[in-house]
Amino acid sequence: MNNPYQVIKEQVQSGTCILATVVEGIHTGEKLILSDGQISWSSPNEEFLPQNIEQIREIEKSQTIEIEKERVFCEKIGNRPVLVICGGGHVSLAIIKIAKSIGFKVVVLEDRPKFADWARSAGADQVICDSFSNGMQQIPGNKDTYFVIVTRGHRYDTECLREAVKKPNAYVGMMGSHKRVGIVKNQLAEEGVEKSVLDHIHTPIGLSIGAETPEEIAVSVMAEIIQVKNSERKVTGYEKELLYYLTGEIAPEKGKVLAVIVSKKGSAPRECGTKMLILEDGTTVGTIGGGCVESEIIREGLLMIRDHAPENKLLMVDM
Predict the structure, then answer these.
(1) What's the pLDDT tens digit per position in 74-101?
(2) Residues whose CB is less than 8 angstroms from the CB of residue 30 and which lie 6 or more positions away in sequence, other chains included
(3) Which residues make Cβ contacts (< 8 Å) with residue 198, sequence separation at least 6?
(4) Rounded (5°) CA angle 190-139-167
(5) What is the pLDDT of residues 129-146, one digit of tens each?
(6) How far apart are CA 25 and CA 65, in angstroms?
(7) 221: nearest Cα among 122, 107, 99
(8) Residue 40: enclosing H or E segment and its boundaries?
(9) Closest of 168, 163, 161 to residue 182, by C-alpha
(10) Tens digits of residue pLDDT in 223-267
(11) What CA–CA distance (Å, rounded) separates 92 from 108?
């Protein structure tokens, strides 16, 4: 397989991987992909990165490191975040729309067919219309899974929360009054759920912004989830549309340049690993921050396509 992005597309389904790219030095352009610490792809006939695999294995977040006086951008790539919403009421519908707009895969659990249909119409990627207990059994969970519990009663809250805290997750939040939340937590504590686990549940759910309407509550919930997701910024990702272009499933005949932020200082708005694809007709997929700097990068990318430049180009810009 000659396309590293095809490997990335397949590997991130089962966990994280690391893409290492030499961005400055005599081996500029050489790439290597590590999955579970082992090489799953490397540039043909290149040995520099495989010989330095130990340093690459040690990275915990996307960053540029120096290996034998060459600069290597190591990108830790994770799964697309999954938002599991327990409940299909008005707040759920508002959350679905926001979550979809910022790149989450959205799964909704709802036991009422009519409400399940509303969730589908709102844009959920998957709707499981079954009892909450059965629905939760179908969710494996992982470190990129966010659980939001917004059911219509504490009986159902308890069913969902009982299962959510058992699964690998990035976030568990539950909507409800202090009394309702207390009832659910006390019941789980009596069942043997450890206090430290219960203390990590986000209740009341969402950031405190005085939200009242379903739409305002959805904003507060997703703001809190974004805050949690971006608190460490250890893992970056590839949007589905971006991977379609990079693997050649879309517009394989078009020239393209991938612009990636490989290092930053100060208060630049976007983090390492942020990407923008530049196509030969001037259209772009994604953004690295907008404004004059982005226009400059697009111009440089178009020049590279026009001149058939074979190598990477490292640019310093002021955001």
Answers:
(1) 998 887 889 999 999 999 999 999 999 9
(2) 21, 22, 42, 43, 46, 48, 49
(3) 165, 185, 188, 189
(4) 45
(5) 999 999 999 999 988 899
(6) 12
(7) 99
(8) strand 38-42
(9) 161
(10) 999 999 887 656 677 888 899 999 999 999 999 999 999 998 887
(11) 8
Cα separation, 86 vs 154, in Å, equals: 12
C-beta atoms surrounding 115 within 10 Å: 19
Angle, alpha carbons 103-108-114 (nearest 5°): 130
Convert the pLDDT of each residue in 267-314 to its tens digit.
Answer: 777 888 899 999 999 999 999 988 888 999 999 999 999 998 777 889
149, β-bridge pairs: 86, 174
φ, ψ for residue 110 (rounded to 5)?
-155, 135
Show the tokens assigned to 305: 């396509």
Q: How far apart are CA 129 and CA 109, in angstroms?
A: 6
